[in-house]
Every structure is written in C-alpha cells, then in structure tokens.
C-alpha cells in the first residue's frame, strides 16, 4: 500500500498517516530494555563469568557485553556446547580409569572365587563380575552440562528474593 500524500510504500506496522517524522512504526523496537549480560574472555578463548556486571575483568581478560537476546542465546548455546564437550571428556576419562582398575583386580576376584568353598561367596563374585561387565559396556557421555544464563530463564516469578548491600539488605525479587 502507498501513502496518498508522499508516495512511500507502507509496511505492516507503519503509521498510516504522514507526520512530522514521516511514517514511523507504531511498534516499539525495544519492548523492554534489559541490562547487558557481562562475560570476560581472554586471548585463548576462555571465559569467566562474573558475579556482578560491575566487576572488573581479571588480568588478561576483556569485558564483553551481551546486549541483545540473540547474543545471549548464541553465547548460551556455544558455551553450553563447550561445557558439555568438557563434561563428556571427563566422563570418558573416568570410565576408562574405572575399566583399567577393574581389569587390574578382576584376576583377584576370580582367585577368591576359585579358592572359596562357600556358594554365597561364589555367587557374590559372579554378581560382581556381571555388574562390572554391564558397567564396562554402558555408553558414556550422555549428560548435558545444563549451562544457562539465569536472566534468560529466571525472573521474579520463579526466583527466590535476595538480600545484599545494593538492596539495603532487604529481600528483593
């Protein structure tokens, strides 16, 4: 649709009449302005997450402000993926260490079973060996880090009030 007075093509959401500012949008571009989320990053690409947005970055780190929801979502996704990868590496390392430890002690269990005349002991050793085999064959790295920027997901409706010097030591949501 075109304006009859100035000939400008109007988009959905444009003010339909010519005014002193032309055809401005009737919708606000920033529905709600939020304080930026602050993170610190060094040259190696490592991040530190400050407790407050007023904290100074540690030596060797630069301050990065995530001002838009898109920036916060992207950081949350990328940092969460990085932390999940680290978690999987730790889980895999623990699993491998457990397998090596069990392999070192398996012969001792078999020797105990061989020397014992008690059916209870033999049954217990068999149960231990079955359990260890199942544990050794389990998949590793199924967990997610669960990283999130709290202000993206938690607001006054689902957050416990806090007290600090900035609030005058009074509860604030």
Can I get a quick summary?
The protein is mostly helical and 173 residues long. It has 3 helices and 3 strands; from the N terminus they run E-E-E-H-H-H.
Written account of the structure:
This protein is mainly alpha-helical. The chain has a domain at 1-32. Helix content is 40%, strand content 8%. The protein has three helices and three strands; from the N terminus they run βββααα. It has helices at residues 69-115, 119-136, 150-153, and strands spanning 37-42, 47-48, 61-66. Strands 2-1-3 form a three-stranded antiparallel sheet. Helix 1 packs antiparallel against helix 2. The two termini are 47 Å apart. The mean pLDDT is 84.
| Helix residue percentage | 25-40%
Taking pLDDT < 50 over at least 5 consecutive residues as the criterion, the unreliable ranges are: none
Query: Biggest sheet: strands side by side, in what order?
Result: 2-1-3
- For the secondary structure, the number of strands is 3
How many distinct helices?
Answer: 3
Sheet-strand content, in percent, reads: 5-15%
Which secondary-structure class do the elements indicate?
mainly alpha
Give the end-to-end Cα distance, rounded to a whole number of Å: 47 Å
């Amino acid at each position: 649709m075109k304006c009859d007075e100035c000939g400008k093509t109007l988009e959905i959401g444009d003010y339909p009449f010519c005014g002193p500012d032309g055809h401005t949008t009737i919708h606000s571009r920033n529905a709600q302005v939020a304080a930026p989320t602050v993170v610190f990053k060094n040259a190696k690409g490592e991040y530190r997450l400050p407790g407050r947005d007023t904290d100074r970055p540690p030596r060797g780190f630069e301050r990065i402000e995530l001002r838009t929801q898109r920036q916060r979502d992207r950081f949350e996704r990328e940092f969460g993926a990085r932390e999940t990868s680290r978690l999987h590496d730790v889980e895999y390392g623990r699993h491998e260490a457990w397998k090596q430890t069990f392999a070192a002690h398996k012969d001792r269990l078999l020797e105990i079973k061989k020397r014992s005349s008690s059916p209870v002991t033999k049954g217990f050793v068999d149960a231990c060996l079955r359990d260890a085999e199942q544990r050794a064959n389990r998949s590793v790295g199924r967990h997610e880090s669960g990283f999130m920027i709290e202000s993206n997901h938690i607001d006054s409706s689902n957050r416990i009030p806090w007290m600090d010097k900035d609030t005058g030591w009074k509860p604030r949501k």
